[in-house]
Amino acid sequence: MELGGEEERFNKYAFACAIVASMISIIFGYDTGVMSGAMIFIKDDLGISDTQQEVLAGILNLCALVGSLAAGRTSDYIGRRYTIVLASVLFMVGAILMGYGPNYAILMVGRCVAGIGVGFALMIAPVYSAEISSAKSRGFLTSLPELCIGIGILLGYVVNYFFGKLTLKLGWRLMLGIAAIPSLALTFGILTMPESPRWLVMQGHLGKAKKVLLQVSNTEQEAELRFKDIKIAAGIDENCTEEMVKLHQRNNGEGVWKELILRPSPSVRWMLIAAVGIHFFEHATGIEAVMLYSPRIFKKAGVTSKDKLLLTTIGVGLTKITFLIIASFLLDKVGRRRLLLISTGGMVFGLTVLGFSLTMEEKSHEKLTWALTLSIVATYTFVAFFNIGLGPVTWVYSSEIFPLKLRAQGASIGVAVNRVMNAAVSMSFISIYKAITIGGSFFMFAGISVLAWLFFYFFLPETKGKALEEMEMVFSKNSSRNVAAGTDLKENA
Question: Is residue 157 within 8 Å of 317, Cβ to Cβ?
Answer without folding.
Answer: yes
